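User: Batch of two.

Assistant: Item 1 of 2:
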Amino acid sequence: MSTPRIKINIKKIAHNAKTLNRLYGSKGIEVIGVTKAVCGNPDVAAALVNNGISILADSRIINIRRMRKAGVQAEFLLLRTPLLSQAEDVVKYADISLNSEVSVIKELSKFAKMNYTKHKIILMVELGDLREGIMPLDLDDTVKQVLALDGIELAGIGTNLACFGGIQPDNDKMVSLSSLAKNIEEKYNLNIKFISGGNSANYNWFMSTNDVGRINNLRLGESIYLGCETLYRKPIPGLYIDAFTLVAEVIESKIKPSHPFGKIAQDAFGNVPEFQDRGKIKRVILGIGLQDVQVSGLTPKADIEILGSSSDHIVIDARKIELKTGDEVEFNLNYGALLSAMTSPYVFKKVEENFWMPKNIAKALNKNTAIIKNYFQPSLLKKTTLD
C-alpha cells in the first residue's frame, strides 16, 4: 500500500460528531462541523451530516466546491472572512459567510443581487483574541450599514477565541457576546438566528456553566477529529482520540553514531542543530519529511524516538525495535500535523470504515440494486453512523 499515508477512521469520526452534537444540543447549542483540517474530504463531511450536523464550515472555497460536487447535502459556511477578490464565488458556493469588513459585504451584496439570491452573513465581533472581528463599539454602525444592503441577510453575530492570541472563551466573553446580540435585536427589531460563541476551545466553558446565555452555536473541528478540547488538549470523555493515523515507510535502517561527526553549521532550514552523544544506535530513516507533515506534531505509536527531520526524511532512534526497509511506522497526530498531512499532495489519504455514498447514487441503488452493487464495493452501500 502507498506511503506515506494517513488512515481515516470514518466510524470514529462519526461517533465523535454524534456524541458532541448530543452534548452541546443538551443546552440548546447547534454544532457546525468544520472541515478545514480534512480539506473538505467528502467522506468525512458526509459522516458529520449523517450524524446530525447540518451545516459544514470551511475556510477555503475550493473545499466547499469539492463537497458540493461530491453531493454532500448540507448548508455551507465560509469560515474565513472572504477575500474581496472571491466575493462572486463566495455567493455562488457558500450559503453563509463570516464577515468583519463592510467593503467585502458590499461586494457580496453586488453579486447576490446579480444572482437574484440572498447571502447570509455572520458578523464577527472582536472580544480579545485579536484575529478577525469588529470592535464592539463599531458593531452598531456596521449593523446599520449591513441592513441597508440588498441581497444580504444578517443571520447572526459571532466571535473567535483561542486561535491567535490564545484567549479563553470564558463566561465573561460569552456574556458580552450575548449582550451584544440582545442589544442589536432590540434596537433593530431583529431575530438573530446564529449567536456563534466560538470553537472547540469552548468545551471547558460549556461544561462549567449552567447558563449558556444567548449562545446557540459553536464551530467544531479539532474536538470532532482528535477528541480533545483545545485550551489544554485534554481528551474529552467518551470520544476517540485516534481517528487519524499517519503511516510512514522505512527507507534505511543501520547502526550509526548518535552524534554527527565534523564541524556543525546550519541545517537545510537555517537552524544549528544540537545532538546528544549516546554512542551507536539503531538509526532509521522514514520516507516522509517536513514537505509532507508538521513533524513536531507527531507522536510515535511504538517505543521509538524522533531525532529530527529534513524536507523528505524523518530520522528516528528505533531503540529495541527491529525495523528493516519496507516496514511501516505509525504516528498519532496533533491538529497542526493533521492539517499539514491532509493538505499535502504527497500523503495518500486512505478512508477506512467508509459507509457513505452520494445521495444520487443511493437513489439509483433503489432503482437497480444489481447494477450498482457490481459497480461499488458493498461496504459503500451503508450509511455512515455509529450508535
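Item 2 of 2:
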Amino acid sequence: MENRRIGDVVTSVPCKTTNCAAKLAALVTVGLLPSVAWSQNSSISKFDVVRDVGYAEPKNARQSLDVYFSASLQNAPTIIWIHGGGWRRGDKGGMETKAATFFEQGYVFVSTTYRFFPEVSIKEMTGDVAKSIRWVRDNIRRYGGDPQRLIVMGHSAGAHLAALVCTDDRYLRAEGVPLACVKGCVTLDGGAYDIPHRVQAGVNVREVYKEVFGGREETYRDYSPALHVAEGKSIPPFLIFYVAGREETKTQSLRFAEQLKAVEVEAEVVAAQNKTHATLESELGLDGDKPTAAVLEFLKTSLGSK
C-alpha cells in the first residue's frame, strides 16, 4: 500500500513485517514521507495524520498542529509535543517516529507549533501553547483521544514552555481549560526553569535571556516555571531530563524538581547518558532508547493502569 496525501490527511503504511524500514525508505526516496529514522525492529501499525490544523483565528502556519491518530484508538491518552528552537525557530514536523512509538503504546500524538520571538513575547508564545491545548481538549475525541488525560511534553525551549503552562495556571485558565486535565509533563533538557538564577550564574546566556525574556527581574520571575510552583494548583507530575554532563541544564532541572517536591508534586529527574542536546530529542521513540523507556514508564504511572 502506498502513502497518499488526501487534503490534509496522510495515511501511513501499515508495517507489521521485518522489511518495514525498506518500505518506508522507498517512500522517503520518492518524497511521500519526510526523511526520518525508522527502526527495522519497530512494528509500526497504520495511523493517520491530519496536518496544519489551525488552533487560532485567522488560521496561520505558526498557530497550527498535527494530529497522529487511528480509528483503532478510543478514549486514548493524548500526548501534546512542543518543539524547541530557542524561542526563535523550530517546526512541528518530522514526528512520525515518535508518533508511531507512542501510538503502539495506545496514545494519540499531537505536535504543535507557536509564534516566535521577536514577533511575539514569551507570554504570547505560552498563550499559543495554551490555545493548542484548548483545541486538543475540545476536539481530540474526534480522533480517539481522551480530553481528560493529556500529557504535555517539550524539548529545549519547548521544555520551558511546557513547564510554564503546567505551573502557571493563568494560561490554561484564560482558555477555559483546568490544569487538572494535564496528567503529566515531560521536559527534555530545558535550561530556563528558574531564569533569575540562570542569568546570575550564566556567562554566555545573559544577553540572550535579557533579550528574549525582557531584561527585567519582574519578567524573569514571571516566565520562570519554578517560581510559579505552589500548592493547590493541580500541577501534574513531572519527568525532567537533562543531558548528563551539561551543568547548566542539570542545575536548572534539580532546582525545579526541588521546588515541585516541596509542594508534594511528584518530580523525577533523569540524567540522559550518552546523549547530546540534539540527540536526546531526535532519538526519542527509537527502539532501545533509554529515555523513551523512562517516558513510557512515567506515563503508565501518571495515568494509572491502562
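The first helix runs from residue 20 to 29.
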